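Trying the structure run again after the queue cleared.
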Amino acid sequence: MIDDEILAGVEAVLMITDSAVSAADLASSLGLDEDTVLEAVRTLKADYDGDENRRQRGFEIRHVAGGFRIFSRGDYHEVVKDFLTAGQSAKLSQAALETLAVIAYRQPISRPRIAAIRGVSVDGVIRTLLLRGLIVEAGKEASTSALLYATTPQFLDTMGMNAIDDLPDIAPYLPEDADVAELGNEDTEVLAEIDDGLDEDDDLPAVPHTHDAGAAEVTGDDIADDSAEMSRVAD
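Done. Tokens:
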């Protein structure tokens, strides 16, 4: 029988990951052998599935993409869907507005790049914006295969704009010494190379903008200013 401490460790890792974790990675992180990890996963799966007269849980362990991950149980898809869509009428949070502003000005843009600009994880916010229909997946970055995101016609409708070019000029929100003219259209493929070259304390370089050859670097403070204007329009 697997020790409760081992079961708890495997469960804790699977609870916080947003992608499948292989048995080898679980074993390495927990200091166990793979056979022990696999037995622990089987034990947890049986527990969640309600074997041996135990109550079935609302979540389950699935083997996907060569690893394991915890998902909400498929039987409760409609319950989860209703819960998520019920919040669509609520106003967007400040974090969502800032992320939406980054995407609007820098689209198409990858999730890692958005997180680099904002300085925080944006996974939950991206899901919210996708659910609201304000952004959409727009292909993959050639060099990293990271998903790219762009705004939708619903975004334009919500903001009262006819085209993305109707966005307010970002230049007034930039530092006085920012040289807008030096920044041109660069291909999105170079983003990964830029990110790979950044140290933790480095300043972020300018990000390519697909809509305006005169675009300038957007920082977290700039986005906060502009997202406030978006909030007023959305209200």
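The longest strand covers residues 59-64. Worth checking whether this holds up in the mutant runs.
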